[in-house]
Amino acid sequence: MSDVETLKAEVKKLSAKAMQAKMDLHDLSEELPVGVENVMATAERVRDSYAALTAKRAELKALEAAA
User: Which residues fall in a coiled-coil region (predicted)?
Assistant: First the structure.
């Protein structure tokens, strides 16, 4: 598998992870105030997931531009 294909696969996995974290936060918000103690940890997981996804997308874009 080429580097571009590898990065695309990683982006796909990170995207799925970020979407799941987003949905977890959404589900948690619908049940408030139950689970309020989990909001910050879940929100941080969403932020971290999307930060990783953004970085990997930038890496892929740079690799594709260099090719």
Answer: 4-63
Which tokens go with 4? Answer: 């571009």
Looking at the chain, which runs of residues are DSSP E strands? none
Domain range for 11 is: 3-66
The DSSP symbol for 1 reads -
Task: Return the residue matching tokens 């949905």.
Answer: 23
Going by the DSSP 8-state scheme, the letter that residue 37 receives in this structure is G
For the segment 1-21, what is each residue's pLDDT rounded down to a tens digit?
A: 689 999 999 999 999 999 999
Domain with residue 50: its CATH number is 1.10.287.660
Is the pTM higher than 0.85? The answer reads yes
Q: Which tokens hold the place of 53?
A: 């996804």
DSSP track, 2-18: -HHHHHHHHHHHHHHHH
